[in-house]
Write a structure and sequence with these properties.
Elements: H1 2-16, E1 24-28, E2 39-42, E3 48-49, H2 50-53, H3 63-80, E4 92-94, E5 102-105, E6 108-111, E7 125-128, H4 134-143, H5 154-163, E8 181-183, E9 192-194, E10 200-203, E11 210-212, H6 247-258, H7 270-281, H8 286-298, H9 310-319, H10 324-337, H11 342-351
Antiparallel strand pairs: 1-2, 3-9, 4-5, 6-7, 8-11, 9-10
Helix pairs in contact: 4-7, 5-8, 7-8
């Protein structure tokens, strides 16, 4: 069903938006067809991957001008996803195979690295939900990896951060019920095609597209602007690394991306929530991400008097003996990192 839902959602987006999604000619999520495997047949899209264009200095367009055009035109496409809101986290299910009326939000599918994306019943495929609130989704994904944590306090810190995630509302300060939005499932540069001047021509790889909390929704930072928050993949300053933007440059482009949205209340700290999501779902990257977050929260001379040292805090978290005052201060820092106001922070605390 995951493949069928992906194809139907792509057809829905092509009919309902001007987002440059490949046209779907045919698909079959079963093996009962002439080639004996599930498939999607779609149109070819012109353009070069943004992963090639971002650092390309060979063309007539200056790099910064091209980057601005890339982000401008991607933002215009992603903003269209904001037209649609949903009452749960999961895949979209349609009344008819070729994207008839939207019927419901179904289960959320996740695929482990190395799994065959075409098959629904293979080892490595997992489904749960749909979820009616953000925390339940994050916790379900985290609990799926129960038992894979080394004893370092990172998992306890991650759970505290998940408990601090505010409800998915139009803005963190609103009091409406939670609602969820579509977003690209692999929001990175290899999946966005553009012309030499940076104009977007296509968006690829919608496999397993589903709804998400607004904190990591359609207006979150593109993956190539948050590489400094994924230490295992970020090679700036490392010998023999691929070309990378510096942390200051990434911060500058994140500010530019934020300026593209009228309401950027979720956008400006989406890299923090994305880091939490990756740490909860990715066994390869989670420890390095949590190590960096722990440094941000617990290191620095201005913080020395308010909490014990970083090793002591992580040890106390792991053993469940962090003092009430220490936990209160740690939660305050987490909410500051998430960009939460005192009002939103208090509400998140009450719902924990």
């Amino acid at each position: 069903m995951a493949l069928r839902n992906t194809a139907a959602t792509m057809i829905f987006l092509q009919k309902s938006t001007t987002i440059p999604v490949p046209e779907i000619y045919a698909f079959d999520h079963t093996v009962d067809n002439e080639i004996g495997v599930p498939y999607i047949m779609m149109s070819f899209l012109e353009g070069r991957p943004v992963s090639e264009l971002w650092f390309d200095r060979s063309g007539p367009t200056p790099v910064d001008a091209r980057r601005e055009r890339i982000l401008d035109t991607i933002a215009l496409s992603m903003e269209q996803l904001g037209r649609f809101t949903f009452n749960g986290i999961g895949t979209l299910q349609f009344a008819e195979p070729m994207a008839g009326p939207l019927a419901d939000v179904g289960p959320l599918y996740t695929i482990d690295p190395g799994a065959d994306l075409a098959l629904d019943s293979i080892s490595g495929a997992w489904q749960a939900g749909p979820f009616e609130d953000s925390k339940s989704c994050f916790k379900a994904l985290l609990n799926r990896r129960q038992g894979s944590w080394p004893p370092c306090g990172f998992s306890e810190l991650l759970r505290l951060m998940i408990d601090s995630i505010p409800p998915s509302r139009i803005s963190p300060m609103s009091h409406s019920r939670e609602s969820f939005v579509l977003s690209h499932p692999d929001y990175d540069s290899q999946n966005f095609l553009a012309r030499e001047d940076g104009t977007l021509t296509g968006i690829l790889d919608w496999d397993n597209v589903h709804t998400l909390p607004r904190c990591i929704g359609y207006d979150r930072f593109p993956g190539w602007l948050t590489r400094d928050w994924d230490p295992i993949r970020y090679g700036f300053g490392c010998e023999n690394s691929r070309e990378e933007d510096s942390p200051d440059t990434l911060e500058r482009w994140r500010a530019y991306w934020t300026s593209k949205f009228t309401d950027s209340s979720w956008t400006k700290t989406s890299h923090v929530y994305e880091a939490i999501w990756i740490a909860a779902t990715d066994q390869v990257c989670w420890a390095q991400i949590m190590d960096q977050i722990a440094n941000i929260l617990l290191c620095g001379s201005e913080k020395a008097e308010e909490l014990p040292s970083r090793p002591e805090v992580l040890y106390d978290l792991e053993k469940g003996v962090l003092s009430v005052q220490g936990k209160k201060e740690l939660l305050r820092r987490i909410r500051v990192l998430m960009g939460l106001s005192s009002t939103a922070a208090s509400e998140a605390s009450r719902e924990t």
